[in-house]
Amino acid sequence: MSGSSASDEALSSGSLKVEEEKKSAASVSHIVYHFGTSGIAVATATGITHPLDVLKVRLQMQLAGQRGPLTGMGKVFTKMLKTEGPRALYLGLTPALARSVLYGGLRLGLYEPAKHICDWAFGTTNMLVKIASGGFSGAVATAITNPTEVLKVRLQMNSNMGKGGAIREIRRIASEEGIQAFWKGVGPAMGRAAMLTASQLASYDESKRALIRWTPLEEGFHLHLISSSIAGTISTLVTAPIDMIKTRLMLQRESKRVGGYKNGFHCAYQVMLTEGPRALYKGGFAIFARLGPQTTITFIICEKLRELAGLKAI
Fold first, then answer.
1. What CATH number should be reported for the domain holding residue 300?
2. For the chain, which terminus, N or C, has the lower number of CB atoms within 10 Å?
3. How many structural domains is the chain composed of?
């Protein structure tokens, strides 16, 4: 009897260990799928819309510190093709994709956990909680990945770097400006990411629920398309000015004739003083043309990948 009892205990212990290992493996795979689907979705959308991002940066750097008539996106696009060639539209693509995987994975991936923590702490997931969760995840993701954004915008403004340009630029920034230069503009970048993620995810989340409640739409492509289009429009209007300030701060080396900006507020003040309030929306159409489709592509792909991975919809 005692031998049988010991055998049963051993079997029970062995089965418990197997169950624990399965749960551990499931939890690890769940985390990988959760953040991986977000990163892949954002990287795909970034690759498709990158030329518009290059145009946006060029438009934002027009007449820095000066007033005057601005060149439209069409003319900037035509001039770039003539003087720099089609490849100029993909300047900075490598750091942009690297940033998208890391930043996108964290930005979208942290939203759900942050929302669940707020629900546990406050017993609600209302609109304010969703905005706060989005703001938190966007700010944290940007603080970690800001160096890739600095490198991206530097490359987008310089078409003469050739092969190995990214590595050379990293070395140049580190040697001439110091490691801290990789965090130039991190304040406005965090502010922009917080506002972008809060407006994007909260409006997408709420739009989905409102459409499911008030229309015949159900989880699927059409619901995701309409909800993401609404989110893209709202996030563009909210983030365009702070996106412009972030770009100026990151490109201060190219704007030395204007004088150094001390911080985001000083940059905004100087821009409005020297270029006029409308200058805060320089590149606004390019931002909308890029962010609208990017938001739509990101959410549609992310939702599909989550479905394939066995995760619930956002």
1. 1.50.40.10
2. N
3. 1
